[in-house]
Amino acid sequence: MENTPLISFKKANIINGESIVIYGLDMDIYPGDFVYIVGKVGTGKTSIIRTMTAENPLKEGEGTVCGYSLNGIRPKDIPFLRRKTGVVFQDFQLLMDRTVESNLEFVLKATGWKVREEMDRRILEVLQDVGMETKAHKMPHQLSGGEQQRIAIARALLNEPEVILADEPTGNLDDETAEEILRLINDLNKQNGTTLIMVTHDKSIVERYPGRVFICADETCTEQ
Known about the structure:
With 224 residues, this protein is α/β, with parallel strands linked by helices. It has helices at residues 45-52, 78-83, 100-110, 116-129, 145-157, 175-192, 203-208, and strands at 7-16, 19-29, 34-39, 60-65, 68-69, 85-88, 163-167, 195-200, 212-217, 220-223.
């Protein structure tokens, strides 16, 4: 394990809107870590993720993510930070008016890819990673919830991020499908070495797939 954290917060106050939801966050996450952020609804879990991607500003304390300081990060640097962080959402957030392939192409173009052959190759690679290579020409509504979440994970992998941030990735799935997605995410961490941070309120997941655990409660977030 490297000594330099991939993500680091020191005495950071995490905000949601104008309100501080977590005071004095101290967190160091290293390459290859599998980290859970757990807690009840409204305890600031998602706000931490949004701070990591510079969606929420960091006004007090210190924070760095993948080499970028979150303190006064320049707007032009935010897209580069986000290329290093792949985000998987609970509600998939696929574009429903275009095919799977077009969804992935849209992200590549938005993050600076230009060569058609390179984009095609990368799209095939990430679809193979999640076992969805035969679904490239499907529309999202033609896929099950589990398949849509696999595509969302493929989308998060496109730019070979240093860290994947999964925000309640199984929240909208039935138990069997959720287990498939959890195995896939666990494999990405164990086999590929991808750093993974998962937000969840489901403690049974933590028991089945052990990792480091930070608990959000009473306006704090501390490691268990």
